[in-house]
Amino acid sequence: MLKSLEIDNFKSLCKFKIEFSPLTVLIGNNAVGKSSVLHAIGFLAHFAEGNMKEFLNKRNWSPFELKSKHYHPSKRNISFTSVFSLENDYNLRWEFTLTARKENDDLQCVREKITDLDSEKVLLSREIKKMTWFDFSKNQYDVFPEIQLYGSMLSLIENEDKSIERFPHLLHLKKFIKGIESFELLSPEKMKKTSRFDAADLGIGGERLGAFLHSLTTEQRNEIDNKVKELYPYLDKVITWKKQYGHIHLQINEFYGETGSYAINSNYISDGLLRIIAIVSLGALSKDYTTLLLDEIEDGINPSLAADLINYLSIIGQKQNKQILVTTHSPVMLNYFNKDSIVFLWKGQDGITQADKMFESPEMIDHLRFMNPGEVWLNFESKDIEDSLLKWKKTVSGGEDAD
Amino acid sequence: MPIKILILGEGANDVGIYDFNGQWISGSIINLLTKINDKVELSFIPINKKHLPNTLPMKDRPSLEGHGKVIQKMFFYSYIRKMEYDIMVYYGDTDKEAGTKTTKTQAKKASQVAYKQAYDAFDKFDVKGIAIIPLRMLESWLLADEQAFLNAFDIKVSLPKNPEMLWGDKRDPKSNHPKKTLERILSRFGLNSDTSNFCTIYDNASIPILESKCPISFPPFLMKAQEYLT
Q1: For tag attachment on chain B, is the N or C end more exposed, with fewer CB atoms within 10 Å?
Q2: A320 C-beta neighbours (distance < 10 Å), count
Q3: What are the residue boundaries of the structural domains of chain B, listed by start?
Q4: CB contact under 8 A, B59 and A379
């Protein structure tokens, strides 16, 4: 899993550090940087694959505009350091620095390094005009001149079995990162439209929901139907069928006992129900999907379903070994997350985003004697929570200022 | 040192209210509490109902009920503000639950349930708490002591035998509803049924008489009040 992430000069994230759990929920006021954290993680996956452009194009972002506004415009370097704990007990640190070039309207990687944290062996490194990686089959470093890449050196490692002997750590890391999938823009409007061909997932905005469901086995479809029924008892079945030119059409059948049953075309399905179907269908993603990112999980969902929905996400995470990161503005939803999975974000006086586990300081933990997490968040001023977390940081860092 | 009491009620006549300037105007329950033990000094910290925090009961987990829910909010209010106090006093009516209970047994059961909700909540938050929950409403207890009316207003009145059991249509001026009964008695002597007169009645009331005339809902309050207000 992705254990921690340090970012500098990416949107509002400057000298920013965050730690993750298998299921992490990010909370905080509007515009404190919760979605930026999801964006940054989504960016890692695109960088590893060498398709940063796709990431930017999907969001209509300009490379140069990714830089934080909090620094002087001349500061062009954007840096990431992420720590992963992977299968085979591989603990790796991946660092890279990008330079935003206004003149070329692109991002160029100027430094990259991957280190095995247990042995401190550098597994991959990229500096100006030089690339190096350690080949385990030869037990030596390969050094070669820098190749022009629009992404990470990991994109050069083939996803094939032979790579496992040469670069076991790097291949595991690449597969893990490749499996990070963002569903941050789940939109009922997109889900209502027909989608085409087979789809391995439902798409960042749910635009491939129909095609994804259509590609699943009957068993998987039944599981989805049953889970949605638990949340929406009137559902009989989610139905998909192929129309002309490979377009997949989505509809649901509702059952009302003696009154009868009705078919409802995707255009007329309620937004909330579509989001429920989309979230439930995440459980059918293949094991290649290692990390799921969901923004504003509560959007369109009735609070009475909070417990079931969070429990379901937790089961997906545990049973399928997937890491899940969500953001929420709902104290009701928050109540059902484990206290250790809650990360509170805020902006300091300088406008820079900060984050900390909400219930790490003794003072904040003490609140849980009487209140549940949602009540703490709802009733305490953000400033009180910030002060408590900063005070705790200062204490554990030996009295020095947190930053 | 006065005993510091964090207090919450329902309105102007019982615990009191905050006026438009944010000034607290105390109600008749303050006079009643002060009478319990005239050897101790009491200092009141009234809670503005508007500022009560929110609670979020969780599915499939036990939560407080009825009066207990309000006490939970009182506790949250004090906890969030790190307030210091010795005792928490909660005033609540049982008119909604107990109004329809016509027999003494039913009424007693409803009163026990109401007090249990309150004292379970005090126990949960480990605070010294006094619950004041008259059966029906505040006026039931005010209709208990004839001597108090004589001492207070120099009027001789005939009060109901079982004031706690009074009930009727609130909109009918001739009904046995406690509010209407008290209004009729006071108006006969040109007195208003208002906070000021309620305070005067409690100032002149006898605690033993209140205890004997309101045997269902007064003793559970009195027992805790005598224990803590010493």
Answers
A1: N
A2: 17
A3: 3-228
A4: no
pLDDT tens-place string over residues A4-46: 999 999 998 999 999 999 999 999 999 999 999 999 999 999 9
d(CA B110, CA A304): 30
Per-residue model confidence as pLDDT tens digits over B200-220: 999 999 999 999 999 999 999
Residue given tokens 């638990």 in the structure block: A230
Confidence class for position A402, pLDDT limits 50, 70, 90: very low
Q: For the whole model, what pTM was predicted?
A: 0.89
Give the strand pairing for A247-255 and A261-265.
Answer: antiparallel
Q: Is the CB of B54 less than 8 angstroms away from the CB of A335?
A: no
Question: A379: which chain B residues are within 8 Å (Cβ-Cβ)?
Answer: 53-54, 76, 80
Contacts of A309 in chain B (CB under 8 A): none
The answer to whether B58 faces chain A, any CB pair under 8 Å, is yes
Kindly provide the ipTM of the predicted complex, given to two decimals. Answer: 0.84
Sign of CA dihedral B70, B76, B79, B83: negative
Cβ neighbours of A335 in B, within 8 Å: 56, 58
β-sheet bridge partners, residue B114: none
d(CA A385, CA A331): 15
What is residue A214's three-state secondary structure? helix
Amino acid occupying residue A8: D
Task: Flag if A375 and B79 touch (Cβ within 8 Å).
Answer: no
Does any CB of chain A come closer than 8 Å to the CB of residue B126?
A: no
Point out the least confidently predicted range of A69-78, A312-321, A391-400, B150-159: A391-400
Distance, in angstroms, between B193 CA and closest chain A CA? 38
